[in-house]
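Troubleshooting log. The previous structure file for this entry was overwritten by mistake, so regenerating from the original sequence record. Sequence copied from the archived sheet and checked twice against the printout by T.R.
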Amino acid sequence: MTWSYRYILLAVIFGFSSLCAKEIKVAVAANVSYAIKDLEEAFTKQNPEIKVQIILGSSGKLTAQIQHGAPYDIFMSANMMYPNRLYKEKIAITSPLVYAKGSLVLLSTQKRDYHVGLPILDDVSIKKIAIANPQSAPYGKAAKEALVHENLYEKVKHKLVYGESISQTLFFTSKAADIGLVAKSSLLSPQMSHYKEYIHWTEVDESFYNPIDQGIVILKHANENTDVKKFYDFILSKQAKTILKQYGYKVD
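Regenerated output below.
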């Protein structure tokens, strides 16, 4: 067998294997960036033949990408508004379901006295407050709602710096701002374990903002794809809910 023939044969085999490889594309809201790693690992352990490609971003930007034809199979949003919109537009083929409920927290890299709650943001020592963009990120929308609820928004809006997603907001909080309003899920990851509750962070009263019901849908790109359905069912399973609870999400 000549080298050229071997090369052609190997190329054909490799190409055939690539065509046979199963891959699904899952668009995931940035707040799930830590939990999704454990979720993907647990799913792959059960389904080693299926490769899961994760695309992270703000729910609003991912929705825009999907509306413009991005070939995603599943969308895990940080709220229900965007999945409902895609379902009404017949881009999603399953009725939106809540897979988890998120929580908002105040975080500072410095030790803070959080006993006063959100009014701490009006303190003169705090110059910059990081929140996600309320126009495209559900956690940013919740943060603004909480500020409005406590009559703080007009007082502190000149201090606000906006992240495109909740993960970018977390970066701003840790590097450029004095304090931030971020997702609780990010603080329960091993990478963030050095930040301690009541010292560096505290939960925002859930009555201050509308519930952060996080929705999941299968998109029309995945119509009749059984591998996609397996991942979708897994996210709604008891095992996945256990993982999500470990990251501070509330699940039914």
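The beta strands are 22-29, 50-57, 74-76, 97-102, 104-107, 129-132, 160-163, 179-183, 201-203, 212-218. Archived copy saved in two places this time.
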